[in-house]
Amino acid sequence: MAHPLDWIDLGRVGYEEAFALQLHLHALRRAGEIADTILIQENPPVITLGRSASEANILRPREELQKLGVSVIEVSRGGDVSYHGPGQLVVSAIMRLRDRVSSIHEYLRLIEQVVMDTLSGYGIQAERVDGASGVWTQGRKIAAVGIAISHGVTLHGLAVNVDPDLSHFGLIRPCGLENTGVTSIAAITGSDPGLIDVRDRLLGEFGRVFEGPVRPSGVDVARLMPAPKE
């Protein structure tokens, strides 16, 4: 029997508020109270530090980042330093791993495949790069991938550059890699398809790659979301 994939789109929301919701959903999934769920969001400018992150990969003083409106937070995913901001589609997959794959490695490869197949729909030939996470095209990174697993259920996921401010990636050393170019769908194709269009294509690929029906979630998000910080 195919396992369904529910999805929730939060729109633009603070990273920390969205992560608090992700933790609620993770607990519900562990308890078997909800199906596997894909959480979609767009964030204000934020630099996230993964478990293996080095402060040296943030290339500007915290005071300067604050003036630019860019916050910095530590997160529980694997990996190093990443940037999220307007024009980027951030997708967190909350899945019971054993229902979908036989290993973490397989799961990561499938997540990357979802992104590559989505980009193919825009005429972008994307690929993996040995020794580097995420999805690349023309020697530049177009999507970041970073996950965490707790009690057999996944957290975090991926971020696709649709049409973000690419200059903000110059504030960091993405994923700790030297001389890493970053690009976007809009930069390559010359037009911004919009987050909704990319979201819909991505959800379709999730359903195809993970072999399950994709449907809107019935979870009462308003009840679970924390109040925004003042």
Radius of gyration: 17 Å
Q: What fraction of residues sit in β-strands? A: 25-35%
How confident overall, as mean pLDDT?
89
Number of domains: 1
CATH class term: Alpha Beta
Helix content: 25-40%
H/E element string? EHEEHEEEHEEEEEHHEH
From the structure above, extract its key features.
30% strand; 230 residues; BirA Bifunctional Protein, domain 2; three-stranded mixed sheet; alpha/beta
Report on this model:
The strands form 2 sheets. Strands 1, 2, 6, 7, 8, 9, 10, 11 and 12 form a 9-stranded mixed β-sheet that branches. This protein has a 3-stranded mixed β-sheet with strand order 4-3-5. It has one domain: Bira Bifunctional Protein, Domain 2 (BirA Bifunctional Protein, domain 2), CATH 3.30.930.10. With 230 residues, it is an alpha/beta fold. The N and C termini lie far apart (46 Å). Helix 3 (104-120) crosses helix 5 (195-209). It is built from 6 helices and 12 strands. A hairpin with a 2-residue loop joins strand 8 (132-137) and strand 9 (140-150).
